[in-house]
From TrEMBL:
The lineage of its organism: Bacteria, Bacillati, Actinomycetota, Actinomycetes, Micrococcales. This is 4Fe-4S Wbl-type domain-containing protein. It comes from the Bacteria. InterPro entries: 4FE4S_WBL. PROSITE patterns: 4FE4S_WBL (PS51674). Residues 13-74 form the 4Fe-4S Wbl-type domain.
Length: 105
């Protein structure tokens, strides 16, 4: 049996965004959260390593490698979602949970 290398985890974008519901049940995730997690995964420097580990472990829950791994999930989406840009470029974008911001107002 081979061992899976998890040294890449410390470099994953999600490791710095612990406020997001990466392991929550898909029914409890808002469309804003889902799209924010997808966008973060798109720019993650270790997304290939993440996908390889998830496939090797046959993970069937949580958000990994840019998508909900729950095979029965409908998938939360938001048609007109766009990240708020900070710093002038999409690469430097900071993503906000707009539902939380609207609720705080």
């Amino acid at each position: 049996m081979s061992t899976i290398d998890f040294s890449w985890v410390d470099h994953a974008t999600c490791s710095e965004r612990t406020e997001l519901p990466w392991l929550r049940d898909s029914a409890e995730i808002s469309p804003w959260e889902a799209e924010t997690m997808r966008a973060l995964c798109d720019d993650c420097p270790v997304s290939d390593e993440c996908l390889a580990a998830v496939d090797a472990l046959t993970v069937c829950g949580g958000w990994w490698a840019g998508r909900d791994r729950d095979r029965d999930a409908q998938g939360a989406t938001l048609d007109a979602w766009h990240p708020l840009l900070v710093g002038g470029s999409e690469r430097q974008a900071t993503l906000f949970d707009l539902d939380a911001i609207a609720g705080a107002a």
